[in-house]
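Bench notes, afternoon.
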Amino acid sequence: MKIFPGASLLWLSLFVGIVTAEESVPKTYPVSVEVIPEAFTKPVPESVKDLQEMQDHLTSLIPRLKECTVNLQVGGAQGSGVIVSPEGHVLTAAHVSGRPDRKLSVIMSDGNRYRARSLGRNKVLDASLVKIESDRTDWPYCSMAEEASKPGDWCMVVAHPGGYQEERGMVLRLGRVILENPWMIQSDCELVGGDSGGPLFGIDGKVIGVNTRIGESTDLNFHVPIEAYTRDWERLVAGEDFRTHSGAYLGVSGVVKQGAPGMEVTKVYPGDPADRAGLLEGDVLLTFQARKITSMQQLVDLVGAEVPGRSVKLGVLRDGETLEVTLRLGMRWD
C-alpha cells in the first residue's frame, strides 16, 4: 500500500470514534506506553492488518491523552495546552499565554474549568509554561520525551481547534515528523486556529513538541521541540521572561577592526542566505535591522532574535558606497 503526503487525512476516519467516544478509563500517571506496534516501525502501512494494529494502539492511547490535553482561555483569545506534571504544570505556546503572571482559565476534557497563571516564557522559541492554581497533586499528566524526535517518526496532534466544544471533543491528526532540530519541528499534522499551544505526541504517548505556527500547506506545520521546555525548565518555573537563539542563520563570518565602522565580512558561506543575497567578502556590515553592528557575537545574537525565514535588512558599505540589502534568514540544522 502506497501512502502519499496527506493520505493520513483520508484514513483518519478510522479513528473518529476514538476522539468522540466518552470512554471511562482509569487514569494513568504519567501517560505513556513502552511497547510500540510493529506497524509503526514500517515506512508505510502495508496491509489492513497494519492499519488495524495502528487503530487499536491509538484507541488505547487517546482516552488517556485526552485527560492531559486542555483548552486555555486568556482575555478574549484561546488556545490549547498539555499538562505535564501531577502538580498541574501546562506546556503551551508563548503567543497563547502572553507575558508571565497573567491569569488564565484551563478547561479540562470533561468541561471543568480551573484558574491558572502564566509562568515563564521564551519569546523567541514561543515556549511558555502555565500553572493551574490548585494544591492538587494528582492531575492527569503526560510525560515529556527524553529524546528528540527524528524525521520519519510517526506523531499526532491532539488539541482543541476553534476552542473547547463538548459535543465534539478533541481533534486528532496523525502524521509524520518531517524536519527536527533544537529550535523547531516540522510535521504534516495539519494545524488550524486554536491548535496553538497544543501537544505534538510521539506514538508512545510522550510529548515531543508544542504547536506554534501554521504553514501555507498541509506539510508546513511547526512545533516547539520539547527540548525548549526541558532545557530551560527552571527558568520557566521561575517565571522568567527570556530569549534564546532561534536557529536563524545568515551565513557570514567577520571581524571588527578598531576605529573602523561595522564588521568586515571575511567569509561568505556558499549557498547560504548572505551568498544568495549577493554579499561579498570585503563588504562591511554596518547595520542589521537598523541596529549598529559592533561585533560578530552581537550579530549572532541579533540574527538569533529573529525567526528563521523572516526577511531582514542589512546596511552594507561596499567600495565607499552604502547599500541596503534585503535577505531571508535561513535555519541552522546542527
